[in-house]
UniProtKB/TrEMBL annotation:
Residues 594-673 form the BRCT domain. GO terms for molecular function: DNA binding; DNA ligase (NAD+) activity; metal ion binding. Its cofactor is Mg(2+); Mn(2+). It comes from the Bacteria. The keyword DNA damage applies. GO terms for cellular component: cytosol. This is DNA ligase. The lineage of its organism: Bacteria, Pseudomonadati, Pseudomonadota, Gammaproteobacteria, Halospina. Belongs to the NAD-dependent DNA ligase family. LigA subfamily. It is an enzyme of class 6 (ligase). NAD(+) binds at D35, E36, A37, Y38, D39, S84, L85, E116, R139, E176, K293, K317.
Length: 673
């Protein structure tokens, strides 16, 4: 049997090894092991901590997502102020800055300057205590920011525990959180396909990710951080030069920008500016200029500050990536989730290091905001590999023959009606089960674990089957045969048989799963469950009007319109008919046992962790007894059921005087009803 001591030592050794490889990968950009070897170490640590929860520490690499978000956006005072910088907009202003600095110091000799790319992100301060990340905060007003620790902990380039041991007991590190250009492009593409609002630029994407109240959102975003200064009340023990302090930060495991350089004299600063400007288009992140800092910290102290800016530093701005071209036409494309996206066809123009002839316009609201017409002259902006965007219409150059842009009434891919409820930004094709552009996504969703749960029919095989022409809609799944499947590459006879059996087993799902599997917009599992329990048959749901739909708890006019629009589309009804012809039926929900239940007709909120029930099981138990389970506490809530670790919902219930039931009381009430 393995001793507790040896388990603890193994966990510590794994953490140290993972932290070291994180340092090599994120801080030095010089990994020593393959991704596979790194993943094996991480999996071993995850398994060890799962089997022995007492070994988990807050700074473990496995705990990047897991910190409580309860502290998010509380006030966070900075130990030393986070100051802003003055700007120089040309070489003359930069030379004036150097002259003023040397005159104030009474020094004729050229000064040493640390030159740093000015990343276009969000300034963040990290407070470390005992080498462990204690708090992360935004700049705020320079003196007090907002606590964003739970979100910053998810960023891989932010070490939860520092390397080495020669760091101060407590100190702040200042840096910039940003989103690389390729990650920004992937994020916006995914948001657009999901019908969600896209970000205008990487800076907004980084800021929006850090200000999200769910740390899992930040964890899913491609955020990085580069550090640019140390802030301690007492510099004792730290290098006396700024550039040397940056090297020390890197030794401790923090990332600094690889383009940082130490130069002597203002001419060398200007040479660096020109060099980095030429390199700008090939960088993997956005920079909008350069920051120059007097390198000697004693000289910085002598120079001091003016207002809220240091006299020893200045930012030199880069010109914007913008050129003029003409919009020749606007076409509409259909994404995998049915989102209709207008795309501008441009006169080809060279901008941001590439020739651009097309650019997304995102949605009709963006077209209206720009005031864009076909034939307009526009300014197009592009940075690095990011999709170019129209930033301005040059109305003073508008030709007389421009044409208005209007949303088509039918999907350009399948001819189904285009749906855009009032007040919503994204228009969508309503032929979700039929539209070729949405084919793969509709089938993947239908077969997913929480829908029809067809084991073996994952994204990879959906892609193969659609690409091979073997399935076009979800109804075609039920006509797949073993003899056809085994002809596919890497599909053996056993896998083919298992898939056919899994398809057969999916022919009689619960009604709520079938409703969810249809992929109706904004109909998630909870809404599908509520619809199933209210209408009790798919046929009744298909014929329900919007007023009837709004009688279901938590369904408002927008969701009701989505449901009605889905079933009003003839293509969707045809696919449902073909499913029935293929033998797909469903199990209606059980009749609710509400006669003697104390929860019948009550609105209940669950919070914390229950020992006897999972959250879904508790919800099912309540709803089967006639309760409505809500996600938030309000004055209309009848009960809050609080398990272990109940947080803000429990506090709000107490503030509002809503009755709170412990798990024991909840179980007693269930037994009574």
């Amino acid at each position: 049997m393995t001793s507790d001591t040896s388990l603890t030592e193994r966990a510590e050794n794994l953490r140290r090894e993972i932290e070291y490889h994180n340092y090599r990968y994120y801080s030095l950009d010089d990994p020593e092991v393959s991704d596979e070897a790194y993943d094996r170490l991480m999996r071993e640590l995850q398994d060890l901590e799962a089997e022995h929860p007492e070994l988990v520490t807050p700074e473990s690499p496995t705990q990047r997502v897991g910190a409580s978000p309860d502290t998010l956006f509380r006030e966070a005072p900075h130990e030393t102020p986070m100051l802003s910088l003055e700007n120089a907009f040309d070489e003359d202003e930069l030379r004036d800055f150097d002259r003023r600095v040397r005159e104030r110091l009474g020094q004729e000799d050229a000064l040493e300057y640390a030159c740093e790319p000015k990343l276009d992100g969000l300034a963040v301060s990290l407070l470390y205590r005992g080498g462990v990340l204690y708090r992360a905060a935004t700049r705020g007003d320079g003196y007090t920011g907002e606590d964003i620790t739970a979100n910053v902990r998810t960023i891989e380039t932010v070490p939860l525990r520092l390397m080495g041991s020669d760091y101060p007991d407590a100190f702040e590190v200042r840096g910039e959180v940003y989103m690389p250009l390729d990650g920004f492009e992937r994020l916006n593409r995914a948001l657009a396909e999901a019908g969600e609002k896209t970000f205008v630029n990487p800076r907004n994407a980084a800021a929006g990710s850090l200000r999200n109240k769910d740390p899992h959102v930040a964890a899913a975003r491609p955020l990085e951080m580069c550090c640019y200064s140390v802030a301690v009340p007492d510099d004792t023990g730290l290098p006396a030069k700024h550039f040397e302090q940056l090297q020390k930060l890197r030794d401790w495991g923090l990332r600094i920008n690889p383009e940082v350089r130490l130069v002597t004299g203002i001419d060398a600063c200007i040479d660096y500016y020109r060099e980095l400007l030429a390199k700008r288009e090939n960088l993997r992140y956005e920079i909008d200029g350069i920051v120059y800092k007097v390198n000697d910290l004693d000289l910085q102290k002598r120079l001091g500050f003016v207002s809220r800016a240091p006299r020893w530093a200045i930012a030199s701005k880069f010109p914007a990536h913008e050129v003029m071209t003409r919009v020749r036409d606007v076409e509409f494309q259909v994404g995998r989730t049915g989102a209709i996206t207008p795309v501008a066809r441009l006169d080809p123009v060279f901008v941001g290091g590439a020739t651009v002839s097309n650019t997304t316009l995102h949605n009709m609201d963006e077209i209206e905001r720009l005031g864009l017409r076909i034939g307009d002259w526009v300014m197009v902006r592009r940075a690095g590999d990011v999709i170019p965007q129209v930033v301005k219409v040059l109305t003073d150059k508008r030709p007389a023959d421009t044409r208005e842009i209007s949303l088509p009434s039918e999907c350009p891919e399948c001819g189904s009606a285009i749906d855009q409820p009032e007040g919503e930004v994204v228009a969508r094709c309503s032929g979700g089960l039929f539209c070729p552009a949405q084919r793969k996504e509709a089938i993947r969703h239908y077969a997913s674990r929480r829908a029809l749960d067809i084991e073996g029919l994952g994204e990879q095989w959906v892609n193969v089957l659609v690409d091979e022409g073997m399935i076009e809609t979800v109804a075609d799944i039920y006509h797949l045969r073993e003899e056809d499947l085994v002809r596919l590459d890497r599909m053996g006879s056993k896998s083919a048989a298992n898939l056919v059996n899994a398809i057969a087993e999916s022919r009689e799902p619960d009604l709520e799963r079938l409703i969810y599997a249809l992929g109706i917009r904004e109909v998630g599992e909870a809404t599908a469950r509520a619809l199933a329990r209210h209408f009790r048959s798919l046929e009744s749901l298909m014929e329900a009007d919007e007023d009837s739909l709004q009688e279901v708890a938590d369904i408002g006019p927008v969701v009701a319109a989505h449901i009605r629009g889905f079933f009003a589309e003839p293509h969707n009804r045809e696919i449902i008919r073909r499913l029935k012809d293929a033998g797909v039926t469903y199990r209606p929900p059980p009749e609710p046992e509400t006669a003697s239940s104390p929860f019948a007709g009550k609105t209940v909120v669950l919070t914390g962790t229950l020992s006897e029930y999972s959250r879904d099981e508790a919800r099912d138990a309540l709803e089967s007894r006639g309760a409505k389970v809500a996600g938030s506490v309000s004055s209309r809530t009848d009960y809050v059921i609080a398990g272990e670790g109940g947080g803000s919902k429990l506090n709000k219930a107490r503030d509002l005087g809503v009755p709170v039931l412990s798990e024991a009381e909840f179980l007693e009430q269930l037994a009574a009803g």
